[in-house]
Structures are given as C-alpha cells and as structure tokens.
Amino acid sequence: MILVTVKLMGHLIKIAGTNSLYLEMEDGSVIRDLLEQIFSIYGAEMRNQVMDHSGESLAAYYKILVNGRNFKLLNAFSTPLENGQVIHIMPPVAGG
Amino acid sequence: MQGGYTGKYLDIDLQNGTVKVLPLDKEMTVKYVGGGGFNAKILWDQLPAEVDPLAPENILIISTGPMTGTLAPTGNSWYVGFKSPATGIYGEGRGGGYWGPELKFAGYDYLILRGRSPKPVYLYIENDKVELLPADDLWGLDFFKTVDQLEEKHKGARVLGIGPAGENLVRFACIMSDRYRAGGRGGAGAVMGSKQLKAIAVCGTSDVRVADKEGFIEALRDANKTLMAHPATATLLPDFGTASLVNGMSAFGAFPTRNFRSGVFEGAEKISGETMAETILVKTRGCYSCNIKCTRYTMVKEGNYAGVESEGPEYETVNAFGSRCGVDNLEAIAMANMNANRYGLDTISTGTLISFAMELYEEGILSKEECNGLELTFGNHEAMNQLLEDIAMRKGLGDILAEGVKRAAARIGRQADKYAMHVKGLELTATEPRAAQDSGLGHSVASRGGDHLRPWSPAYTLFNFGSEELGLGGTPDPIVPDDKANVVVQMQRVSTFTDMNGTCKFIVLCNTISPSQLARLHTTITGIPFTSEDVMQSAARVWNLQRALNNLKFGVTSSDDTLPQRLLNEPAPEGPAKGKVVELDKMKREYYQLEGWDDNGVPRRERLMELGLDFVAAELGK
C-alpha cells in the first residue's frame, strides 16, 4: 500500500471541509486513480470543480503538483504514486 | 481630438514657494504615454546625474496615465518618479486608490516637485487653486492621523503623503495615499520627507474627457467581459485577495522563508488567503473604477493583537512579515502591516530588513545588546513588531536598518553582506528565484532594482496563465533557465505599459487583458491610434529609456545585474527546486540579445534609434 498526502486549496477546502487528506492507495496506482478516489469521497461537486466537462482533462488553469512539480512535466494523469508523496490540487490562484 | 489627458501640469519649487501651471507637451503623450514614461523622460531631461537623492536638487514627480480617472478597468493609478535613496538609480512606485483620479479631476496630469521647503508644508490643490500651507501641526503625525486632519479641514479632498518614516528619511519609506495605498518601493517617502513636504490634498470637479465615447464603451465592454470571465480577476482576487498565492507559492518551493534560506514554509496554511478569509477578513473593497476588488479590509477581534485594523495584508506583506521572518501568526502580520502603513514604510523592504537582522542574530553576528535588547530569533513576532517601530523612528539597530539592507550590511560588517537580500540596493520580493528561474532574471535586470513586477513572470511559469498574443503557452518548467529570457521580455512589455497608462497591473498580471485590448482602450480614450505593436514598442521605448538613465547617468553595468550570492551559489535545501541555484548568466546573455543591449548591458545605438531615443544614442560613448 502507498500512503500519500493530498493538499487542497481555495474553494476545494470548502467542498471537502478540510485542506489535507491522507489516503492509502494500492501499489501501482497513478494520479488518475487518486483523483477517482477523491471524487468517490466528495462526489460530483468536487469532480465538476477539478475536471473539465469532458472529464478527461483538468478544468481551466487547475493544476496538480506532485512534490511541488506540475504533473504535466511528469506523466500527467499516469504519474505513478509513491509512498510519502505530497499531492497538491490547486485551483487557479493569482496575486503578486 | 485628444482625450485622457488634462493638458496641464504643475511645476512647484518648494524652496521659494512658486507654482507654475504649464501645458503638457503632446510629444510626451505620443511617445511616452504617461506614468513611468513621463517620469523617465523628465528625469532624463532635468535631473543632474550626480545628485544626492536626499538633496533638494532631486526631483520628485507624481504622474498619472491617460486612463487614470476614466472608467477604464482599474483606471486609478498614480506613479512617483525620483532618484532612489535606496539604490541611487531610477526610482519608481505606483499606487492605486482614489488620489490619482482626483488629481486629474483637478485638472493636472502630473506634478514636478523641486527644492526643499524651509519649513514643513503640505500642498493643497482645488482645481485652479494651488497653495503651499504650513504643516507644523502635521509633522510627526502618522499617515492615518494626517489623512484624518486633512480630510476634516478640506472636505472631499483625497490625501497623499508620508508618515514618520518619510520624515525620518528611512531609505525605503513609502508615499501613501487614501490611507492604505502605497507607492511603495525605493524610498519616495524619504525624498518627499527631505523636501519637508508632508502631504498633498487634492480636490477636483472636472471630468476626464474621452476622445471616442462610443468606441470606448465597446472597448470597455470587451475588456470587462474578459476580466469577469477569467478566474484570476473574476473569483480568485475577489474571494481570497493576493494572499491566495501563499499556499501555491510554498507548494512550488517559491515562497521565501527565513531570509531566503528556503522556499518552503511549514506554516504557510496558517497565513494563507484562505485562512484570512476565515478569520480576520471583514469585507472586500476596491479602488476607483475597479470591479476586481482584491483589497481585504481586516480586523483582529481577539487575542494579543485585538483591535488591529487595516487593509491587507497583501501577499507580499504576508511573505515579508510572515515566512521571511519565520512567523506563522496572521494577527501579528496584520499588526506589522497596519503599523507599516501608519509609519509609511515599504512592507517588502521592512520585512527583508527584519529577517536579515534575525539571521544575523541567529548566526551570532549581532548580539542581543546590538538588537536593542530584543531576542531576535526567527518566529518572534513581538520582536518583529518592536523592530519595525524602531526602524521607522531610527532607534538603535533600527537606525542602521533604516539605511536599507545593502548599506546596513556594509555598516555592520562581519560578513553580514552574505545575508543581505537585494539587487542594486532594493530588497528582494516574495518569489524564491531558485524555484522560478525567470523571476531571478526579472529581479536582476529590473529598472528599479530587486523588483518582482516588471514582470511577475511566475504567473506564466508557475501558474501557467499563458497568452496567445505573446506566444506564451503550454507548461514551462520553472526550475530550468531555458526559454525564460523571452518570457521576461514579453511580459515586461505589458507590465511596463500598465506603469504608463494609468491602470493597475492586476488587469494584465495573469495575461488577462491582451496587448490588443490595451491598445483599443488607449486609442478610444486618447484618440491617438495605437495598435498592439505600438503598446509593445512604446513600452520598450520607456523600458530602454529607464535603462539608459541607469547606465549613462547612474553608472549601472552588467555586473550590477546580479543576485545575492545565496541564490547563485547555495542550492535550494528542500522542495521541488532542491539542489538548484539560479542559472543567471545564461538567461542574462539571452535577455541582453533580445533587448538589443551590449555585453555591458547598455542599449546599442541602433536599438535606441529604432525606439526613437536618438537623444539617448547621442550620449553613448561620451
């Protein structure tokens, strides 16, 4: 089994009622499996925020970071999960 | 018909109290647009190169842009230009609020302030009436009380001015307006203090004329549609303010922590925009003509900091008084923010100075006695707040720190410069460049020193807000130097233009409003035909003029375009950039090539001629 920490930001915190999740995943799981696990817990509201209408891509400007690296610079939804990883699900943020 | 400009400016000699009302030169509007463009041209033409920034001979310009005071989105900006007492080079700051539009309503595009008043004075402008009035009873007051008194005396006036930090010539004192807005960086407040000018209260009753009303309404509708459809300006800034960045920046390893020892702060969540919204936020506010309304009006209701009330803290301030000082107490940060506003201190530089002193204390370079008896460890927020007051009032260690981190390190000696985080004397901002290489380049070449806003390129490299018109798309890798020079050049152009036209950077920060939309707004307001290419070219002209000022008048060379050794030589200790340093040389070479600068960082003759800066080209090699 793999234990990962998921950090939520912005409006996602309200949907989940928390900003941190600790999830156990099967060996060999990838980011897509993790998302499905999260959507199974928090339902359509979470899915509709994070994913676009096709359900195949992230919603506009959403990002997933794996230990701080944008998952698109890794293997995107197929990025393998590893024990101890921190996964950020990040809505668009802005400032400066 | 030219719109957007009032067609007049004030030239005020504080030494002898004379006020001249002069016509605006039309060439200025066509070539330099306004704001930072006006400031750079006036400083080039009129400022003696060798002048001490705090001497009467320094010039202080407060300008607006053609969109200031119109209904253009965020048409609220005022810009201050001067030789910086922090850096000795080009100084510029921008503020929002309501003061800039009021200056236009009174009938003026900009003010030039010269000389030094023999006694403290303030300037009162009510349309054609322009008076220098005694400020003996205002001198020594904090900025909030100054506003209270002047608003009471001059009903309906908007107030810009300085707090005690400016009076005490703290080299990073701000000029403030509208209570909480700041032209924050580089010490404009100290220049104003050196002139014994406490405040400028302004009240006007005219409108700002627009050249093509119907065209403007169309351009405005289009721009507002874009802003209200983009997540940054439609929901994120309104809902969480600029501090919505805190958690994200820390996740990327780009949130400077404990004086840039790291880019990851374990206490980020406690000081984030999300936490602010749940705790101290009372309501949101906006500046003139702004639908984004990113301003947080906050109040601490209980605990040791109960009663603290201010606008903000903004992202930069949360970083400066938060992770930079190892503080995860949002109420303590709110206190520091409120007091910085009252005293008129730049929060970014002040936080950098305090975190610098904290590191020196922890490294054993400064003793407790040298630290005014404070236990100046990272995380000690009571000591942080005390030291802030000591800096504003120049007490003990505060007097040394009030000189800015570069001078303070030199004065302390004992290798303190190793911990001084600045570029050209201006303290660094809240992006860890080892995790966003482009930001390292941007800071190193910015015209006013260590500056994150020309441009805030992490909007693209970290947060992936691309731009079709700028050719920025996909997912760049922030921790490698490849292709970053072009990103900085492209985004620098757009951000420079918003330092000229009178709007806030937040309409372009995330590549929201495009250059062609800016051009359309500009054309319809001014009646001066502008294309998106003109937007980029005029911004390039002003950027290169600012650069030439730095090169030819103030002696800046390529060796000044650098970063603190920590960022160049010490690998990031943790986070996604672990093991990385800033690979500056490669990016800088590419940047110079793209800008048309020579190996010494000076714009080449042909580049200057192409930009219509032949009078600058004529000075090369002299």
Question: If you had to describe this structure to a student in words, what would you say it looks like?
Answer:
The complex is a heterodimer of chains A (96) and B (622). Chain A has 96 residues and is of the alpha+beta class. Chain A has a single domain (2-90), classed as Roll (Ubiquitin-like (UB roll)). Chain A has helices at 11-16, 31-50, and strands at 2-8, 20-25, 63-66, 69-70, 86-90. In chain A, strands 2-1-5-3-4 form a five-stranded mixed sheet. The radius of gyration of chain A is 12 Å and the shape is globular. Chain B is α+β, with helices and mostly antiparallel strands. Chain B folds into three domains: 8-203, Aldehyde Ferredoxin Oxidoreductase,  A, domain 1 (4-Layer Sandwich), CATH 3.60.9; 230-420, Aldehyde Ferredoxin Oxidoreductase Protein, subunit A, domain 2 (Orthogonal Bundle), CATH 1.10.569.10; 437-499 and 531-617, Aldehyde Ferredoxin Oxidoreductase Protein, subunit A, domain 3 (Orthogonal Bundle), CATH 1.10.599. In chain B, strand 1 and strand 2 (18-23) form a beta hairpin. Classes of the chains: A alpha+beta (96), B alpha+beta (622).
